[in-house]
Amino acid sequence: MTPAVAFAGTPSATATVVPSVQIDKARIDRALAAMISSGRAVGVSALVWKDGREVYFGTAGQADREAKRPMRREALAQIYSMTKPITGVALMKLWEQGRFALDDPLARYLPEFAQTRVFAGLDPAGKPILRPPERPILIRDILRHTAGFGYGAGDDYLGTEWLRLDPLNTDHDLAEFGRRLAKVPLLADPGRRWSYSAAVDVQALLVEKLTGLPFERYVRQQIFEPLGMKDSGWTQPEDRYARLAAMYGKDAGGLLQRASEKEQRGLNFTPDRQLTMGGAGLVSSVDDYMRFARMLLNNGSLDGVRILKPSTVKLMATDQLDPLVTERSWLSGKGTGGFGIDFFVRTGQPRDRSENRGALGEFFWDGRASTLFWVDPINKITAVFFVQVIPFDGTLHRDLRRAVYGDSYLGPKGD
Q1: What are the residue boundaries of the structural domains of the chain, listed by start?
Q2: Is the distance from CB of 121 to CB of 130 less than 8 angstroms?
Q3: Could you confirm whether domain 2-90+228-233+277-405 is CATH 3.40.50.300?
Q4: In 3D, which of 182, 217, 202, 245 has the Cα closest to residue 44?
Q5: Is 81 a catalytic residue?
Q6: Looking at the predicted structure, is the pLDDT value of residue 360 above 70?
């Protein structure tokens, strides 16, 4: 039995005695194999660290079914939105240096957002009603997805405006992205709604503005190189393409088929790309991303290299959503919790067996191609899961977490 301790500003995680998590390698092996045999994935890999050491690595299936290339440890994967936590760390390094305050207006640094308007519906003639926001967008808002930005979905007026302005077109650099996004009306007033969005790309733009460096170079110098993340990057040399796991999508019958060549290569092997997104675009290896995850588990440092202060990691891993933010889109589907700075944060035990297993105080994020990582400070666990399946399949995460924790694990209670 191991005493649980409070972490990272979790909601009064009072000391409670809970069973220690025992890693069952055979159980995880079976879960990975079932993902392949059920037809939900072509190839998967999982890496788990606990108590400062690797306790599990395993693969199942193939990195490339057509080439009959097995899933191996050195495989590279497109991690999509698992890019976001890396961008958050990059920006919070500048916050530690006093380069901005969380409650500073965004427009103080990016003036184009001073003129952003809120969409308030259509008038009787069908014309859009646009009004000033109740308050300015704060930097805090772009860190927790409460700025009012969207991601372009839908065939309504806002969706049409997104398509017209096309801010995330890869022919734009981050500066042009910002100019265009600022012209797209907000979905809601800042601070009122949690809406998954291009806000993390704005974080990348802010990094460029504050440092005068290209975002990709800054991240490489401040995060990848210090942590020894040699495989990670928005730009990849062509000789690494052979290591890239193939992307698969579900057809109308639910069967996995090889995705288009554009999906296979992503942005990383596109030489004429101009945009370096903060919210997506990274390719990484399971060992590289684990180094990033271990840094977070170790309160901001790894192997003698400090990336963030422990207090900053705690801040990022603390739920930042006010109770008045009741509109949260699909966030509740991630589990019992809220949102910190570029992480989902668990604030309570799993409510039932259908919810992902996990411990109070854990923080995590995932990616469009069904990749996942999480950090569990109470059990001193971090895990990275790679797969390349679109659209997103959360059942893979449910099954992996059950295999790691055991289906009955609930962890400590909060107050």
Answers
A1: 2-90+228-233+277-405
A2: no
A3: no
A4: 245
A5: yes
A6: yes
